[in-house]
From TrEMBL:
Short name of one Pfam family: RVT_3
Domain RNase H type-1 residues, every copy: 173-302
SUPFAM superfamilies: Ribonuclease H-like (SSF53098)
GO MF term list: nucleic acid binding; RNA-DNA hybrid ribonuclease activity
Source species: Erythroxylum novogranatense
Name of the protein this chain belongs to: RNase H type-1 domain-containing protein
Length: 336
């Protein structure tokens, strides 16, 4: 309600009247008529019907003066633009974001277009980080494209872990993953430790380690042992290394022939070590051929020290070290 200088009350009423021909561009209608073969005379008549219509409003039983309606696109309010952003612009890429990881530049470009539309040609008076906050804490509730993309993919990964037997999971696993490590393969958690030894090409002791891990699964313990061993070998100056592990599943995880999404963080650290400037070959051996590392792991489980490093062999492993130097064979018992 505004008043003029002559104290005459004025009121503006905005009426949203939806017409069928307002849903599409009038220029598009004219192009369709032209392509369909209509003459210029017919096209002018149709255009006149669209653009020259007049309306009256029934007010308190009587009609008002005629007026020409205008399209609301150019006079859209901030609240209207915010509604369009939430319902249309922010959701346009949702389908693609559920299966594709968008580059950051693409996400930033989408957010920029949303910001430009929301604030119009004026200054962006509120920081984008505030705009994307929920309304309950003072934001506008607009979704950030980066966060939405990460959320969609996290949801996909979670469903892949929770329902690996479903049809769509099996399709993805067999097509893209070349195998899958079931959650049960990680074993039941328990008190664990890892141990290993670095030896030169003649079998002489270079360094050994034993690390107490606390409560974890056997798979986590094996991978931690590999990571500790790689660090120990690198710090010792080794640049050509053959790693022997008695866990076939871990070897397959490192080679990429097996996948376990829950161990992705630990595997990424191991692969980062393998990509350094050295030559590393990871191989599988039976436990009977890995007795020295197995003994150090048992020492780690019973130890109260977080990590122990030996630059000379401790007395507890001397007998096994001597037997390995003498290439003593140990039989492997297999159930019939």
């Amino acid at each position: 309600m505004h008043k003029t200088r002559c104290n005459v009350g004025l009121m503006v009423v905005k009426i949203d009247m939806e017409k069928a021909f307002d849903r599409i561009s009038w220029g598009f209608i004219d192009d369709c008529l032209r392509l369909a073969g209509f003459t210029d005379h017919w096209r002018i008549l149709v255009s006149s019907c669209l653009s020259s219509c007049m309306m009256k409003v029934l007010w308190n039983g009587s009609t008002t003066a005629s007026f020409k309606p205008g399209r609301g696109k150019n006079t859209l309010s901030f609240a209207g633009r915010l509604t369009l952003v939430k319902s249309v612009l922010s959701t346009t890429a949702n389908h693609s974001m559920q299966v594709l990881y968008f580059p950051r530049s693409v996400c930033d470009s989408i957010d920029k277009k949303i910001r430009d539309f929301l604030w119009g040609r004026g200054v962006h008076i509120v920081n984008w980080a505030v705009v994307t906050q929920p309304q309950c804490i003072g934001g506008l509730g607009v979704k950030s494209t980066r966060i939405m993309n990460d959320s969609f993919l996290a949801k996909l990964g979670w469903r892949l872990l929770q329902k690996p037997k479903s049809l769509w999971c099996q399709v993805i696993i067999h097509k893209y993953m070349r195998g899958y490590s079931e959650i049960s393969c990680m074993g039941n958690p328990g008190l664990a430790g890892c141990g290993g030894v670095v030896r030169d090409f003649t079998g002489n002791w270079v360094c050994g380690f034993a690390t107490h891990l606390g409560i974890c699964t056997s798979m986590v313990a094996e991978l931690n042992g590999l990571l500790e061993g790689l660090n120990c070998a690198w710090d010792s100056g080794c640049r050509r290394l053959i790693v022997e592990m008695d866990s076939l599943s871990c070897v397959q995880l490192i080679r990429g022939s097996l996948v376990n999404l829950r161990l992705a963080g630990l595997l990424s650290k191991i692969r980062a070590m393998l990509q350094r400037e050295w030559v590393v070959q990871v191989t599988h051996v039976y436990r009977e051929a890995n007795r020295l590392a197995d003994l150090l792991a048992n020492i780690a489980v019973l130890s109260s020290t977080r990590r122990r490093t030996w630059w000379f062999p401790p007395a507890a492993v001397l007998s096994i070290l001597i037997q390995d130097r003498q290439e003593v064979a140990w039989p492997r018992f297999v159930r019939a």
